[in-house]
Amino acid sequence: MTPVLYVLIFVLGAVLGGQLNRGIYGLAWRRRAISPWSEPPPDAPPRRGTDLIPVVGWFGLRREASWHGPGFWIRPVLIELAVGCGAAWLYWWEVEQAALMPRVVPPPFPASLLIVQYAGHVLLMALMLVATFIDFDEKTIPDAITVPGALLGLVLFTLAPAAALPVVQVTIRGQWHVAPLLLTAPNPWPAALDGWPGLVIGAVCFAGWCLAIWPKTSTLRRGWRKGLQYLVASLFRLAWWPFYPLLAAAGCAAAAGVWLGGGAPWHACLTSLVGLAFGGGLIWAVRIVGGLSLKKEAMGFGDVTLMAMIGVYVGWQACLLIFFLAPFVAVVVSVIQWILTRRRDIPYGPYLCIATVLLILWWSPAWESHAKMIFSLGWLIPALMLFCLVVLGALLRLWRLVEDALFGPAR
């Protein structure tokens, strides 16, 4: 039945790819009526039922080339094929090969454990794919992707703690077994995090994220005092502003309910909440340092919310690894882009997503060979990160001087 299973996964993946195409065109700032699930353009012929068939339907939609441009259908077809093939390959890699499992623990592994990890990664990669193509098209990442994506991740990992990335844990008897990546890994989970300090940390992380995504503006042109007054006033300028404090209150209440239950769900919930805050806070810090060093916006706030969402699914440790891996991905792509188009601006979100996928696929060797030792340093890690931010600011400033000397001031 294995070939039949892979065909079924491919078909379901292609159907998912059709909905991702729908999101790419429907959630963008400049929405386009390209998806067969949307209303056709004015004066275009009515859509047909066959247009909704994944992959095949786009060949019929070629009739709308005069409205969307020649070859508009090629990318959606490739996305649906890629999602179908990718879903099948990822199942083979994560479930059949158990490639994410630590090599020191002998197989077999419970099928339920492998499948729940696979499902979580499919969800994350689907969200990142929509964000990536919107970012390529518009250099924006809508909150309509990252906010629901983060909330879905919090629910998923609370209900299924085993969906987290796997690591090795040693029992009291010295035996090896697979455990989910938790907030304190590779160090043991302290009992203090099961008490009220853990609840406070989780509530602060979630409330801080709600405050971060709350639309607001600020300026310091008239001083700090006026800037703060303007910032507070801007929080209430939109009619739907009550959504954000209500979301914070509901999220903190839900976290308190999980905390009362304790055990693995609370450990997974707190781990995801810290990943939410750490991932967003890390990119926000780089955004500030980069803006001061380059004298221009270094990263959009969409990158902040994207990394916060990723942190929910992979934890704060993996976020740090992704942060250091993404520049290597970006350098390769940006150099090719500059050679071909002479464009010097790059959307950074897609490279965070590519780095996340690479880390997930090769998680076990990455963690066991290098990362595990680094994260055993404990409280030395924040000091190391602060040092890296200072060095980053200096390097970006140096790069700005070199860039201006070679290419002239950026416009």
How does this structure look, described?
This protein is mainly alpha-helical and 411 residues long. It has two domains: 1-97; 139-407, no CATH class. The chain is built from 14 helices and two strands, in the order ααααααββαααααααα. Strands 1-2 form a two-stranded antiparallel ribbon. α1 crosses α4 (74-96), α9 (243-261) packs across α10 and α10 (263-294) runs parallel beside α14.
Descriptive key words:
411 residues, mainly alpha, 2 domains, two-stranded antiparallel sheet, 67% helix
What would you say about this model in short?
The chain is an all-alpha fold. It has helices spanning 2-26, 56-60, 65-68, 74-96, 111-138, 143-159, 196-213, 224-234, 243-261, 263-294, 301-341, 349-361, 363-375, 380-407, and strands spanning 166-170, 176-180.
| Estimated radius of gyration | 23 Å
**Order of neighbouring strands in the sheet with most strands:** 1-2
Bin the strand percentage.
Answer: under 5%
Helix content: 55-70%
Q: Can you tell me the overall shape?
A: globular
List the helices and strands and how they pair.
Blueprint: H1 2-26, H2 56-60, H3 65-68, H4 74-96, H5 111-138, H6 143-159, E1 166-170, E2 176-180, H7 196-213, H8 224-234, H9 243-261, H10 263-294, H11 301-341, H12 349-361, H13 363-375, H14 380-407
Helix pairs in contact: 1-4, 1-5, 4-5, 5-6, 5-12, 6-10, 6-11, 7-9, 7-10, 9-10, 10-11, 10-14, 11-12
